[in-house]
Amino acid sequence: MRRIRAVVRGTAVALLLGLVAACAPLPSGGGQAAGPSGPADPNAIFGWAHIVGLSRFDPHRATSSYDNTFLFLTYDRLVHVDKDLNPVPGLATSWRFSPDGRALDLQLREGVTFHDGTPFDAAAVKANIERAKTVEGSSVRNELASVQSVDVTGPLAVRLTLSTPNAALPLILSDRAGAMVSPAAFDDPDLDQAPVGAGMFRVASYQPQAKIEYRRVDGYWDPAAVQVAGVDMYVYVDPTTRLNALRTGKIDGSIISAEQVPEAEAAGLRLERGRSNNFYFFHPNRSRSEFGKLEVRQALAHAINRKAIVDSVFRGYATVSEQPLPGWSFAHNPDLPPEPHPYAPERARQLLAQAGLPNGFAFEALVPSSPDSIRIAEAVQADLAAVGVRMSTRVMEGQQLTDVFFARKEGDLLMGSGGGRADPAQMTALRYLPTGFNNPGGTSTATIERLQQEALATTDQAQRAEIFRRMMQEVSDQVLDGVLFYPESPVATTSQVIGFDPALSDRPEFRGVSKAAAS
What we know:
alpha+beta; D-Maltodextrin-Binding Protein, domain 2; Dipeptide-binding Protein, domain 1; Dipeptide-binding Protein, domain 3; 3 domains; six-stranded mixed β-sheet; 20% strand; SBP_5_dom; ABC transporter substrate-binding protein; transport; SBP_5; Peptide/Ni-bd
C-alpha cells in the first residue's frame, strides 16, 4: 500500500493561488497560433496522446468510459452522437420505437463489412447484442437488460423486443453496448489484443499501455470522416511528456495541464478549452467502511474544499459541482446549488459525532497514478485529516482501477474521473441502481429506482428532464456520490491540425480530423 503525503496548506497554496491570477482562462475555441496554411495531406498520420491506457480491446467487456477513444476508432457503433450528445445515424440509418415503447426497430446500413470480410447485417447485430448481454465479464449487460430478444426482420432490419420501455436505448447503442464486433472473432482468444470491427481504422500494431497504431480502412461508409492515413495513439500519463511530444512534433494533439498553458502558447501551439461530461469524484462503496451512514457521507462532502482544489491543481480550468450531470445537459437540475454541501469542516465534525464517530475513522482509497489525480488525492487526504478521517491510499494504473474497484470490489472508495455517458439514464443506472456495474456495494434508494423506471418509460425530453431533476435531488440528499468538479482541460494541437473538435475532450473520436501538408 502506498500512502500519499499530505498537502501542505498555507504558503504553498497561497503561491499556487497567485499563479491562478496570472493565468488567464482560455476562451472557448480560442487559440494563439495561426491556422494551417496548406491543403490537407491524405497520407498524414495523426498523433494523439491519451492520459490513460486501454483496459481491453473487447468493447463488451471494457470497463472504462476512457476506453471509448481507443475502441471507437476501430469498432463502429449502431448509433453515433453529435457534439451535444444527440443520437445520429451510424451503422443504423434509422430507428423507431413501437407505440407502446416495448420494441425498437432499427434499419441498418447497406454494404458494410467487418475488417475480416464478414458482412455486417441483421444477423451480425443480433449476434452482437446477444453476446454483449451474455459474455462472461460483460460490463454492458445491465445496460441491455431491458432487451428481451433480438429478432431479424429483414436482411438489414432488426427488432429489439423489450421487457420494459427504455427511452435511453438509442444512446446506449451509441456507446460500448452498440459497438459491433465481427461475429467470426467472438471466440478468438486474441480479441483483447487484435480487435476486429467495422470502424474507420484497423489496428496495425498494439503495445499495451504504450502505443496503438491505427491505419485507414478503404471503403468506410463515411469517407468524410477519414481524412488521414492513420492515427497513432500514445499513452502518456505524465503531462510533461505530453507537452514535450507536442513541441517536438511527435504528436499533433493532447490534453495538457492548466499550468502548462503559458509554455504551450510560447511554443506556438493552438489551445482550446475542453468540455466534458466526465467528472472528478471520490466514489464510496456504500457497503464498506462507514459509508453506509448518511451522516458520514455528508461529513465527507462538507470536509472537502473543492474550490481550493480547482484553483490549485487545475488553475481554474474546471467547474465546481456536486451534481453528476454537467450544466449543459438537459437533465441537469438548475435548482441545486453547485455545492449543496459547502466546505464546512466544523459541520463535518458534528456529523461524524452524530454518526457515533467523534474520533473519525480510517478507510482505503484507490487512486490513479496520474500526477493530477495524485495531487487531488493529496488535497482530499489533507482535508479529511483535518476533521479526523484517515484516508490511506493504494495508487494504481488507471486502467486497473475500474477492474479492482467495480469488478473485484476491492477498496473502500475510488478517487478518479469518469461517469459521463451518452444518455443520463446510463450514468444513473451504472452508479445508483442496485445492479449497476459502478455500484459495487449494490445499495440504492426506493426513490432512485422508481425515478429510473420513469425516466426510461417516456421518450418525451421535457418529461425526462423533470424526472432527472428529481433524481439529482435524491442523489444530493442521500449523498450517493462524491462529485468534486468538471474539468475543462486545455486541449493543445499543433498549427498543422485541421478539423479537430474538442467537444468531449477526454473522449475524442477524430472524425474528419486532418493535417496540412508540409510546405
